Amino acid sequence: MKQALETIRRTADELIAAAADERAVEDLRVRFLGKKGELTAILKQMGKLSAEERPVVGALANEIREEITEQIALRTKALADAALTARLASETIDVTLPGNRPAQGMRHPFEQVLGELKQIFLGMGFDVVAGPEIEYDHYNFEMLNMPKSHPARDTQDTFYITENMLLRTQTSPMQIRTMEAQKPPIRIICPGRVYRSDAVDATHSPIFHQIEGLVVDKDITFSDLKGTLEVFIKKLYGEDTKVRFRPHHFPYTEPSAEMDMSCFKCGGKGCSMCKGEGWIEILGCGMVHPKVLENCGIDPEVYSGYAFGIGLERITMMRYGIDDMRLLYENDLRFLRQFK
Amino acid sequence: MKMPLNWAKEFAKFDCTPREYAERMSMSGSKVETYESEADAIKNVVIGRVLSIVPHPDSDHMVITQIDIGAQEPVQIVTGAGNLKVGDLVPAALHKSLLPGGKEIRKGKLRGVESNGMLCSLSELGLSINDFPHAVEDGILVLDEECAVGTPAVQALGMDDVSVEFEITPNRPDCLSVRGLARETAATFGVPFEDHLPVVKEGHGDVNSMLKVRIENPDLCYRYVGAVVENVRVKPSPRWMRERLRMCGVRPINNLVDITNYVMLEYGQPMHCFDYKYVNGGEIVVRNAKAGEQIQTLDGIDRELSEEMLVIADQKGPIAVAGVMGGEFSGVYEDTTTIVFESAMFNGPSVRTTAKKLGMRTEASGRYEKGLDPNGCLRCLQRALELVQLLDAGDVVNGVVDVWTHKREERRILLRPEMVNKLLGTDLTKQEMIDILLPLDFKMDGDEVIIPSNRWDMERDCDIAEEVARFVGYNKMPSTVMRGVAEARPTPRQIFTEKMMNALVGYGFYECETFSFYSRKAFDMICLPENHPLRNAVVISNPLGEDTSIMRTTALPSVLDVVARNYNARAAECPVFEYATEYTPDQDPEKLPKESEKVIVAAYGANWDYLAVKGVVEQLLATAGITGWQIRRNTSGNTWHPGRTADIYLPVYDEKRNPIGEILLATVGELHPTVLANYGIKPRVVAADISLDALFENRGGTAQFQPLPKHPASTRDLALVADIEVPASEIAARIEKGAGKILASLTLFDVYTGDKIEAGKKSLAYNLVLRASDRTLTDEECENAVKKILKNLEEIGVALRS
User: Helix, strand, coil % (nearest 5) of chain B?
Assistant: First the structure.
């Protein structure tokens, strides 16, 4: 009997080691350890043994059962490992193939830059307002201290609808509409389309975008204007950006200024972008003219304010290095796709 | 305004580089556009004396010259000009020299003879016969004044001054003059302003016996000063005057015309001179033109005048359009013996209107319309007479005729230092302010600032503040951050719009920006019928051209232009959208048009068919939180494909849920093949015209959480057969109605038409998920629901597919 057990041990060892797959291993488990298996068959004959032999053979049989169980487990694991390795090997792909990108459109470059500007001004407490593009002469000019014969009107060649109605040449009429509708404190920006009778070329367009800003409150000073616009430019172009203010003239502000920023390309040394000056003209601004305040029923002895106007085209073109304004209105996808 | 630096230095002694000058003037408020010297374009050209001239052995028209340029050896130069003689002083461009236009001169051989440079003509130096009237136009410039050989030509020819070009804002017409800019210069550099008071020497006779002036319309002519000069001697003006005019960009003509231009540049006041013999009756009448009256202006064009225009007339008729341009016979001619000088002040707006109407904006009209100083007229005339005497251009008749209807009374502004400081955020003393104002020609009388009559832009505190600020230096003033600033929030509308735009971008669409105006042809392009309401557009009265003449009533043509452009650029697909404003005229033409916000979506390409774009619209509606919308076929237009277009709308109900109307949310469909052909687009284009206004007004609120289902769902698949024209929306509606509340979802997963089914029929396969929130549904409940659904469908002839 002992011999028979040893034979089982040997045969099982050999066969399990040689089993080619999990199915074969399972067959061997049934053959040796199953209810009708070889080892079970021998154990069933244990009764025939003497009382002395029985525990010895029993111990041996148990030892062999454990041994076979362990062999089967090891073999199963080895086979599974091999199968997994083989699967992984067979599933290898060229991971450098181009990915399948999800469709993704883009906002127009204007809107991307405008979005950033809005965030900056919202953060500084400016509400964003909108107004009509077709506007009364009254709001676009007269209330802004530019009566019908004012020579400054010539600097804004105007499209007229009727004698009293026009395509707004600036977003400034929203200053008036806001001041008429709301008492100070006022703090707004008004982005939008404006129109001037300029033929299309690389730097001109009969339609362009402005962002008007207006602050009216008690004790608003020219120094506040400077401080606010400095913060704005630094947020947009970086903390190292320098600004300077130059006297200028607008009929609706006094004192008036133009603001230059240090050239973002050369840092102020002088290059082709800034025409060697180191400075780039960026916006016009000034203290709201007391006549404009009075026109809106605001007492300039009590209140003061400042206003500014930013050209979105200019800022967008500078930001992305676009050299021709026409591209912005042609909407060629090869252009639009570039501004991810 | 161009100004030669040396001219300004007559009034203010300053010394700095042109660059520093430009910088400091810009920062004090006189913006320098650019500065240039004619000398920059001319290098290594010197004055030489012709020592000898011998014929060229191999050329009939060339000569070989030896030129003394002050060096040890003379320079040999071959030239083709025939106007030279030995002893002449000429400009010689030497080896490696530079001439205007970037022309470089190097030594070389001309027909075998060495030439070490080039002798220059007027035009080669960028000059004209007007600058050097004694010279010949087609030969070498021969100097008529003595000059040391070797002197740089730019110095000898007066081309070494620097001309500074200013951008003068409309509020400062006083700075359209050398004298005005010199005053700014003196204040900027802190040097005294050295004014010049014209002095006219005693002449002969009495002007009043020769000239009468009458102003008929004092509202349009504030002052008219006239003087007479007899025995005029018309000749070129002296070189210094010609040089200064040239530097200012004014062509020298003759001494008398040059004097009028010189005084205008120096003082800012336009001047005019008439030939006395054409002033009929010796009387000048300033009056409105008569209807139908005509004048031929100096430029030789006949102009029809209208009654609101002001003219200078004699007893016969108009001889000049006041403040704009003289008439044909109002100039100075070779046979002119006596002239009348005019120094007048006209109403700015009137001059502006007249010039605009006649289509001739002149140097004079540009100045008048900004509002000049009538108080300065006399002085300018005296300056002109002083120059006549200096240049010996004629004999001045004693006296002037001065008719003055509107004097500028003295203007005073109370100096309120606290208001100035309050506006600027500064802490300046009153004395500091006064120290800034005095050099600018303001005078103080106690606390009052007396405004000079040429600074009519000065009206109140803020104007004083600007004068103070620009001389303190804008950049030396403090920068402060406002107090009490709270962060602002976008409005619900702004948040909504951003959400919609960003959603579209997420679906793969590119945003466009197109012009808000187009041509009427755009309506034809999209095949709008003749009487379609969208053809009623806001018209621009003065458009750039027909292509941009009306405001768009629909942005669809704008977006189709973009699609066509990209198709022509061979884009494989073109998913684009524009967030566009459309302009609808009000019935009352004096009321502002309605401006509505639209989103126009358009696409072609493999991934973009009708259902894809409709899916985008459905998703947008879902993002907007809009439920309960309905859809129906739109067969109305010629713009859209009649079989592939739908309107999506929202029914409006009264309190009892009776439908009382609807709101159109969007139209989605394929463009009509004719429209696409008009645009030259070959592939099918699907578009959607979405009303952002309607979406916003009907948007849903914040999404409300629904508990996750606790009970299992049952699913049923229904394969249905329907007549081909029964819309899927109708079938879905009946399924929804039949299933009631337990319908958790309904998905159409197959649509089939073809030979495996009866002709005129289609098969639709739906998957239904049924679920109750409070219990597990029994089979019976589910079967009952299906039965109810099938009964509903039976009414429209839809049955289970056998």
Answer: 30, 30, 40
Residue by residue, DSSP assigns B387-419 as HHHHHT-SEEBS--EEEES-----EEEE--HHH
Are B462 and A124 a contacting pair at CB < 8 A? Answer: no
Of B462, B569, B590, the CB nearest to A289: B462
pLDDT score for A4: 84
Q: In which band, very low, low, confident or very high, does the pLDDT at B220 lie, cut at 50, 70 and 90?
A: very high
> Given a cut of 90, is residue B134 above it in pLDDT?
no
Does residue B703 lie within any of the structural domains? no
- pLDDT at B64 > cutoff 90: yes
Distance CA(A74)–CA(A86), nearest Å, equals 18
**B108 bridge partner residues:** B115
Fold of A109-336: BirA Bifunctional Protein; domain 2 (3.30.930)
Test A105 with B508 for CB contact under 8 angstroms.
Answer: yes
Strand residues in B201-241 grouped as ranges (E): 212-215, 221-230
Nearest chain B residue to A188 by CA distance is B488
Range of the domain at B169: 2-38+162-189
Q: Which residues of chain A, if any, have pLDDT below 70?
A: 151-152, 154-156
Q: Please, are residues B342 and B260 in contact by the beta-carbon 8 Å criterion?
A: no
- Which residues are bridge partners to A128 per DSSP? A189
Neighbours of B126 (CB within 10 A): 16
Closest by CA position to A190, among listed A259, A108, A266, A135: A135
- All residues at 6 or more sequence positions from B801 whose CB lies less than 8 Å from its CB, including other chains: B719, B720, B721, B757, B763
Strand, coil or helix: B430: helix
A288: nearest CA partner in chain B = B462
pTM for the full predicted model: 0.85
Do strands B325-326 and B318-321 pair parallel, antiparallel, or not at all (unpaired)?
antiparallel
Predicted confidence at residue B663, as pLDDT, reads 96
A121 close contact with B: CB closer than 8 A: yes
Q: What is the pLDDT of residues A29-77, one digit of tens each?
A: 898 888 888 888 888 888 888 888 888 888 888 888 899 999 999 999 9
To probe the interface with B, which of A248, A288, A289, A298 has the most B CB atoms within 10 Å? A248
Burial bucket for residue A266 (CB in 10 Å: 0-12, 13-18, 19+): middle
Distance from CA of B515 to the nearest CA of A (A): 7
Three-point CA angle B474, B178, B407, nearest 5°: 90
Q: What is the DSSP string of B762-779?
A: EEEEEEEEE--SSSPPPH
Q: Which residues of B touch A256 (CB under 8 A)?
A: 466
Kindly state whether residues B388 and B468 are assigned to the same domain.
Answer: no
Query: Which pLDDT band, with edges at 50, 70 and 90, does B485 fall under?
Result: low
Helix (H) or strand (E) holding B145: none
CA distance B107 to B97: 10
What is the model's pLDDT at position B484? Answer: 67
Q: Do B398 and B417 reside in the same domain of the chain? A: no
Chain B closest CA to A209's CA: distance in Å? 11
B428 domain-assigned: yes
- Average pLDDT estimate for B71-91: 91
pLDDT of residue B40: 87
Summarize pLDDT for A275-312 with one digit per residue, the tens.
Answer: 778 888 899 999 999 999 999 999 999 999 999 999 99
Q: Is A120 at the interface with chain B, CB within 8 A?
A: no
The total domain count for chain B is 6
- Of the residues B140, B156, B172, which one is the last residue of a structural domain? B156
On whether both B375 and B289 belong to a single domain, the answer is yes
Specify whether the backbone of B131 is left (phi greater than 0), alpha (psi in -120 to 50) or beta.
alpha
ipTM: 0.86
Q: What is the pLDDT of residues B407-428, one digit of tens each?
A: 888 999 999 999 999 999 999 9
